[in-house]
Write a structure and sequence with these properties.
This protein is an alpha/beta fold. Helices cover 44% and strands 11% of the residues.
Length: 171
Amino acid sequence: KPPNITPEGKKMLINALSFSEAQTSDTSVPIISIQDSGYEEFYNLKHKTILRLTFDDVTSYTVRHRLLHPFYEEAFKTREPILFNEEMAFQIFSFAEKARQNNQNLFIHCWAGMSRSVAVALCLNTIFNLLIYCNISHYNSSLKQILTKAMPNSDVIKITMQTYLKCIGEL
């Protein structure tokens, strides 16, 4: 189900962080922790509310055409890649909606804070601050902050926005 429409003027701070930034961030703010496969124990955060997701920073295209970072090239010799999927997008929506209902902001982190977390932050900023809150000035200021780090994972954006459109009956 799509989130309920809220009055104009409300806003939700949605921030993409690196793992090191997440370690020193406000632990009262809910956080989506995007983890690399095989390193789950490494991501030890003290936040009160955490959604942990594990998927690799690759796209179906880069895997199919073997256009991989050497880290993943080596890792995929012994295991299959974990790709972002619709179930993960639903988990993100549910988690973000709970934060919104509690008038909380939201952090999203991945290792470098440049690809997976930025892609999720871009989508959630669009959905919550632009489409739900209709707060264009906050959307624009959040967008500028998010884009300073941007190298977003294209599959995360595509799947997240397609899942949103399914939720509201537009796809």
